[in-house]
Automatic annotation (TrEMBL):
Protein name: GVIN1 GTPase
InterPro entries: VLIG_GTPase
Top-level division of the source organism's lineage: Eukaryota
Amino acid sequence: MHTAFRRANDPLIYLESKRDQYLDCFRSFCKGASSVTFFVDFLCRCLKPAIQQGVCDKTCIQITDEMKSNYPAFSGNRSNLENHILRHLAEQKEFDSYMEYINYPKDYFERFIRECVERYCRYNRDQLRRMFNTNLSDLVQQVLKVNTTVTAALEGKQNNASLWLDKFCTALGSQMEFPREDFRNIEYEDVTDLQFLKEMMATSLDDLLQNLQKESSSTPDLDLKMFRRRPDEILCEALSGCWEQCPFCNAICTNTIPGHETDHSVQFHRSKAVMGRYFNETDNFSIDFCTTAVTSDISFRSCKGWTPYKTYREAGEPYSRWSITPDNSELSYWKWFICTFRPQLEQRFGFKFTGLGEIPEDWKRSTNELALKDVQ
């Protein structure tokens, strides 16, 4: 935020950003350029980055819409996305990825979305290049249309560069960011022949389009870094929500409103072993699910000491902010996960699935197919 503020308000940074423009102005004057030639040259130099950014903005929105339409993971809410992530994890069977998802869900969600977008752009490079070039051509045509419309509207009236710039920048405002204040240094140029100005602008814009198309074709892949907001960032924002995690099993709150005042809750909890819960004074994992634990007579230890699971809210924050329904719901998915990654979990946390943490026989019958069915 500090950097952005300085960029917007520091006069030295502003002048440095305009250095090339002022240098071009000086060179044009030294060459004896006419007022109209100089005016058009300066204007088109400013139009180039504005057009590029406008094209990027539109292309970014189109890519985002394509992803929402063609990728089921992005066509619903975050719960839908999480199910797709769980399917992806079950298919990949990579323990480290699971640990990232369980312990740092927001980071994992963002990485998953980013990789999907990058993969989409990589596999559809030709289509996206055509999309970009079409948007580029369309936007330049819009600028040409504005050039003609503004000139026609001012024909026969009191003509000057300042008034033409007022109309031109206002008309382009809905197409791109083209602030009028950037042209204070040319608004008093001696420009009275608007027809000549229109013709010069048309010629320069045609050259500008050809140059931009040439630059675009020089890179085979669309560089996502040129977007102010990448498609994956837009998707992440749209599919965000509350990222609070259950203090017992790390399941993510399903509320779509960050900072909501109501209790946190999830549709399905997990075995507490996924985050290394264990029985006190033993090396045995605690494998029961939260929804089962809150019906038991077992206690857990928090900063306030020992608290029965049945009255877990009495342990204070964060427990008091969670609503855990004692419904004994247990997904086969997490039973399969425990059985599949038993050695890795034991190595990571230093506890064992023995004694009080013995894995039930019916859990061992949970297959990958059943796990995938749970998150369809």
